[in-house]
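User: I've been going back and forth on whether these two constructs are worth ordering. Before I decide, could you fold them both?

Assistant: Sure. I'll take them in the order you sent them. The first construct and its structure tokens:
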Amino acid sequence: MPFSLIPSDDHSRGERSAHRRDVLKSGLAMAGAAALGLSGRMTSEALATFDDTKAPVASPAVDWVALVSDTHIDQNPGAVARENNMTNNLTRVVAGILAEPVKPRAVFIDGDLAYGVGRAGDYDQLLKLLKPFTDAGIPVHMALGNHDDRDNFRQVVGAAGLAEPGRAKAVESHHTLDVTVAGVRFLVLDSLQRPNFTPGLVGPAQVAWLGDALKNHDDVPTIVFVHHNPALIPTQGLTDTAAVYEAIVARPQVKAMIFGHTHVWNPFGQHEGIKLINLPAVAYPFNAAQPLGWTKFRPIQGGAVLTLNALDPKHPANARPEVFNWR
């Protein structure tokens, strides 16, 4: 059974009222976007002055979601890897997301939630760090990566979260989700094979579920969300990428595939018109030139705006909006 961290109904109702107030306070967003004439593609001159808070969106003017990946949380909050304290980094990311003028409609975390082999204590510590989101009425949806343990995750996170009724029941042996938020559908896949085994595999059952899920709601922009990076040549990434592509390429509602795993920020990939968006890590870089941080995903008319929020505000990619047309 898949789990997400879902705030209580009473809390959610209060947050919906607060969100409506935020929409009223941000009423200039649509007017500002109209003045820009934004259609999903911008000139270099317009991009240089683009204000992400004033972009037109698919649903209410301030809807957006936060994308996070590779948190690698250890049960010891003092644990350090590659000269980074993972707990401190995630604490800063959570604070940064909550400091936004308008709260996100959801947070998605793209796998490698835990450090090493995914101990129960790692997920206990992760829940403590994510509690400010649920306290604020923000749902948290998580994928699994190669440093996670499915059983420990379900035991700890499942006890704290709520199974989403009527969603993602197709592959009981894996953690899959079907979530629509901010006018976009996220199909979350589980590419974990076994803890601390690097290559990823979705497998035939999830590929079949993905194909079935895409037979409906073909009018809703859809994102495939998975931990491992797609790779058509055997690597340490997703080993059955070809099968996943076969399920999604012919479906025009699939606009992008979002993944983590490589600890690289690269929103510019593409496969047969599908955007390939590699999220940066939170925990630590493999390459010192790569940023750490989180990404704001804001749907706009005919596309989306992605903005990196780097832990190092001096990183050259920080706060630079990347604007995409969907295929």
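The second construct, handled the same way:
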Amino acid sequence: MSRKGKVLVAMSGGIDSTVTALMLHDEGYEVIGITMKTWDYTSSGGSKKETGCCNVDSFNDARKAAVDHGFPHYILDIREEFGGFVIDNFVDEYLAGRTPNPCVLCNTHIKWRALLKRADALDCAFIATGHYAKVRQHSNDRFVISKALDDTKDQSYALWGLQQDLLSRTLLPLGDYKKTEIRQMAFDYGYPELAKKSESYEICFVPDNDYRGFLKRRVEGLETKLSGGAFIDKSGTIIGKHKGYPFYTIGQRKGLDITFGKPIYVTKINPETNTVTLGDEEDLEQNNMVVNKLNLIKYDSLANGMEAVTKIRYKDKGCLSNLYFENGTLNIRFYENVKGIAPGQSAVFYEGDDVLGGGIIQSGILSN
């Protein structure tokens, strides 16, 4: 019987999840490692060699660490769950003219739920991952996600969708460490190859990082059906032809194959008319946005007009804003204009380092 209980640790075979498992093992938890196979690269049709968390080398790296330290390790095939939800949503969102964030969706609806289900089957009190964030119980008894100590690695933005039943059983031990410290721990544990292992920032099911190619392979005849749509300016005047609206994202400047003697940006995407609006950088500026599919974390409700720092993308520093609720949606009013609000992306609002909650951006608005 362990001193601290049983914990099911998601082990990708990378440095962060491996060190997480070994740290918890040393701290007295009874660790069970589990590696989740979410995607089969052979079915993606991409040109790049398998990398990341779903290849045989990664499975073997995770298993070796478990065997070396005397705790069990399992491989869990969740390709059907993952593909039927995350990938279908990814395709549907682009076809709807939005820009999805599949990692947030996967964390929220697939990985944590899959972990919790198997944790219950294995009689584990906790689940753990190698994410750089913190989780604690607040004085109001709710469980709260906070930013990691290492600002350069903080992943709290990607965890806004986790509900209280998941957070109450989640351990995130890396939140109190710098990445440099984790690399040193990997050396100290005897895994220098992990410490030197490069990190992948690609979407796991798009190994060549070419989402446009993935969409073409996934949706038969997509390019033929959508090519020849119009680039328009903000007044609606046709200024060129594009290759299909799903192949563009808000704020995109490169790869437009059209020149005006000055930088030009994608400012709006309309799937109904197969048009893509181009404009100047200032046309990307908005100071209001509507957010739906909300999940509140720190409090079960927020005061109307509450001040928060809102992030509209993963690497965003965030901007001061006020939050206004109406009919199940949230209107976020920024103190200053922000650039590149993209429907389909996540909006996450913070009180200090704590995540108040988040949601999916429905639209951006420029108000005088």
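Notes on the second construct follow. The domain at 6-195 is CATH 3.40.50.620 (Rossmann fold). Residues 4 and 149 are 24 Å apart (CA to CA).
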